[in-house]
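A protein record pairs a chain with a discrete description of its three-dimensional fold. The following entry can be read in just this way:
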Amino acid sequence: MSKIRPRPTDTPHGVKLERPARYVPGPDVWSEYILNSEEDPGYENVAPLGPEFFGWTLVANGETGPEKSLWLEADGKSRQFGADGTSLWAPDLTGRLFDPRRFLPSEYLYEYVPGYSKRTLLGGYLPAADIGVWNPKFKAGYEVMVLLPPGAEARPLGRIRAPLPAELGQGTLVPAGDTNATAPKPDTETVDRYWNGLPAQAGSAEDFFSALAGLWNQWRDFFENKMIVEIPDAWLLDAARAGIVMGRTSYRGLEPTYQIGEGAYTKIPERSHALFPVAHYEFVWAHQLWNLAEEVEPYFEHYLERYILPDGNFVYNTQDQVEAPLNAGVFLENSARAYDYTRDREALERRLTVLERMIDFVVKRYRWSKLKFPAADPRHGLIWGSPEADNGDPANDFPESHPYYYQNAVWIWRGLKEHARCLAKAAAEHHAEGLRRQGDEIASLAAEMRADIERSLAKTLADRNPELKAAGIAPFTAFDTRRQPTELSSYENHRYMMDWFTADWGDPALDAGHFHHRELAGLQILGMGLDGDHPRTSNFMEHGTLAGRIRQDDYRPFLLTLYGLLCFAMDSGSRYAPEDALLPGNFPGEGSPYAWSAVVNSELQPAMGLRWLLCYEEHDRAEVHLQKAAPKHWFEAGERIRVENCPTRFGHLSWVTESLASAGDRPSWRVTIRWDESFAADFAVHIHPPDRQPLRSTTAGELRPDRVILAAQLLAGKKEFSLEVG
């Protein structure tokens, strides 16, 4: 415990990330520092740039929703008060439901000093707290573990372990203070006490450890039975799993949520932001990427059946705000991915009726714009609607209410394209003529829509002023042609371009134009988009940055943003991740509760990022990238990357990359890939040598400087393939 202290914030060259009172747009010097170094981005060089995020720690079981879950503060106290009425008006009498100070040998010696707290989740990703606290003045500390057993009426259980201060001397009395009875120092050097969920009530070690074993077995099996991952950075893997766990344990049964635990976005009964489509689509998406499509299907279907209206609109859009119509496209792709990864025709057909209503809703808007505007008008063939919840009003949701945003049209095109492909696949696999006809109709519609968007983009790009053309800036709307390249609004930066990136239009120049716009405007830190007024990133949408960066040839900007999120936009131990993180050194309670409330999307960014780092599927080409963004130190001699049962639309695959010591300073690499069925796609096996020199040899495939391409023809008729790379 004596090692607990604030995270060190020093770099060899004195580069520091510090928070100003007001952010002045400028160069992302922190990105430049990391990307111009000899090392790939990682915790070791990103975290020392600035102070850590200090978050709370979640205690939940997945059955009670926010009503029985707990948040523990940095010193281990619960945010929640006791259930008795006295706690509400007399907090000093009964106070917090759990306060570790009630169980310590002395309340004076162990007092929390801000910054001297280590917050983690038990096992790295369980919904149970493990918090260490150290008092540097009195050289005393304690550890708190709290969990919530199964059951809707379960009470939390806790363990408090407090080593006795060595300075007191053997056999002396521990100063008891005012609340503990004076007692001789025990024979052991550590006091262990247990809590049974009632204020100041003792529990038993047997109850606590029995519940902990059950919790560990539950969540370990949940992940390991579906997809096994071994990587050199276990801390990153824990973050990915923790996001999924925290999301699942914050849902109230199948009822959706945006809020993790209890917070500003809690809505019971579920309405408004509890139904936030962006949260639910990422919740489903992240599960699917981690081979948990079957486990998330009931949540997906529940939302479709209960929160999509008969006309195909989202219930969310009829309450307090109006979200972007593009969400229909994301739901369509989630449905396609669900079939790709499970081949469950019955589940697909259960979804179809609702999906057809959603398609009809957005296609009516598409047809309206084609009738309203001539082909020469860039709005022709786009889709009207709000671009973001904060900018949409149910009382003002009309064709004239907003500009015509490209991300809305592009995501609807993407969703239709993937839905049509899915229907064609299901039709072929199950000899279903009805699905084939429906798939053909939707494919034709998607092709028509693509042509309209291409025509609109071509006109808008041609109409840009000379400054925008020279800078290569990509437009957000049909008439986005008359601005300076340094002009970029908060919502354009943290939302609109993010939706563009996740839709994957397939034009790298337009992706690059958006990223360059962010750089010219000086609105990024460590690659994360900022809102302009403060050094604040809306990390709930940063899966957009990750989606855009993973498609680029240089993997290091992707890694930089991923580790930037891990080190500054969430608690590095408890994984508490707010909707909007002030950079650096943010904490819950600072500023608006809507900004600092932990939310589903923010928690899931490591899960999305790590899956794409390990295995990324091209949208419009039959190519699967393995280890596309793995840092070079993962390829040092003795390291290993192992993934089992990774789902792709071409089938499930497993692989192992072993880094082997060889003559000289440079290792060699042995890669073995297995799949369960015919795999009709190319593999791009990425290897990033620690010396940054190009790859020199391969026993199979096409050798490129940082990868080996294994063509589908080479793999035909096989279920396993090995190669050695030097």
In short: Residues 28 and 525 are 5 Å apart (CA to CA).
